[in-house]
Specification:
Blueprint: E1 2-4, H1 7-19, E2 24-29, H2 35-47, E3 50-55, H3 65-69, H4 75-84, E4 89-91, H5 95-98, H6 117-120, H7 124-139, E5 143-147, H8 151-163, E6 169-173, H9 193-198, H10 201-215, H11 219-231, E7 236-245, E8 260-268, E9 271-279
Helix pairs in contact: 7-8, 10-11
The structure holds pantoate (PAF).
């Protein structure tokens, strides 16, 4: 695996792949790799001749300095995992490579970034769109792979890619879960054993929601039922239950008759976790 710390090296590497007629899949990460990331890598691997991964803990998407400071990081371990997955090249830049001194350009999906989780984490999706646009421009892939777990992020990236005419496909990959249903996340390692156990309430409630939708329900009744599920877990602090139209994320009311997305966020011992599910009635 070729490790590229700067833009010139990764561009030259990718240009070589392209000259050889290879298609290129990209998986962007902030490191602390888990099976969810490795599933993205394997999905890209199955579809492309070459897979490029990035590890960059993007400071502009963290609201609180403490959250950034606590973000887990172990490059040596991550590099071993990427090598084992047969990744061809890793872009591993320092902050000033992505954000050069005097940097002042931002990318923002003005509606999608500022609703739902974007209201709870102001500036977060602007930071995501800004870094992903830069990574796309640097790595120039044919397709990029993102987890459906970060549902709003996926929609922001799809919209940004379309609006800025990036010549690449954005592929959403289903959420990878622990055997007890907890969505895989780099944050899970920071949970205490009791909070880790309590956090399964998110997936349990989403599974029940599927049955509730199949039986026929309204947005309000489903929201109330999910709130009741999560608040019945004493270790959970519910942050948001959003039931919206799938993909557009527009608000909906009344009986659920079209495909919806349920987006949940809750804290367990101060660690914010999210989960989501698309449901077609
Ligand atoms: O999902 C992530 O890990 C990050 O938000 C991303 C897409 C790599 C941008 O920093």
């Amino acid at each position: 695996m070729k490790i590229c710390p700067d833009i010139q090296t990764i561009r030259k590497t990718v240009a070589g792949y392209r000259r050889a007629g290879n298609s290129i899949g990209l998986v962007t990460t902030m490191g602390a790799l888990h099976d969810g990331h490795l599933t993205l890598m394997r999905t890209a691997r199955a579809a492309h001749d070459r897979v490029v991964a990035t590890i960059f803990v993007n400071p502009t998407q963290f609201g609180e300095v403490a959250d950034l400071a606590h973000y887990p990081s172990d490059d040596a371990r991550d590099i071993d995992l990427l090598k084992a997955e047969g990744i061809d090249a890793l872009f591993l830049p320092q902050v000033d490579v992505i954000y050069p001194p005097g940097d002042e350009t931002i990318v923002e999906t003005t509606q999608l970034a500022n609703m739902l989780h974007g209201k709870v984490r102001p500036g977060h999706f602007r930071g995501v769109a800004t870094v992903v646009a830069r990574l796309f421009n640097i790595c120039l892939p044919d397709a990029a792979y993102f987890g459906e777990k970060d549902y709003q992020q996926l929609q922001v990236i799809r919209r940004m890619t379309r609006d800025l005419h990036f010549p690449l496909q954005v592929i959403g990959v289903p959420t990878v879960r622990e055997p007890d249903g907890l969505a895989m996340s780099s944050r899970n390692v920071r949970l205490t054993p009791d909070d880790r156990q309590a956090a399964t309430v998110l997936h349990k409630s989403l599974t029940k929601a599927e049955t509730r939708v199949a039986q026929g329900t309204t947005v309000q009744a489903l929201t109330d039922a999910i709130r009741a599920d999560i608040t019945s877990e004493p270790r959970a602090t519910l942050r948001a239950v959003d039931i919206v139209a799938a993909e557009s994320l527009t608000p909906i009311t009344g009986a659920i008759t079209d495909k919806i997305a349920i987006m949940l966020s809750a804290e367990f011992g101060g660690i914010l976790l999210i989960d989501q599910k698309e449901i077609t009635p």
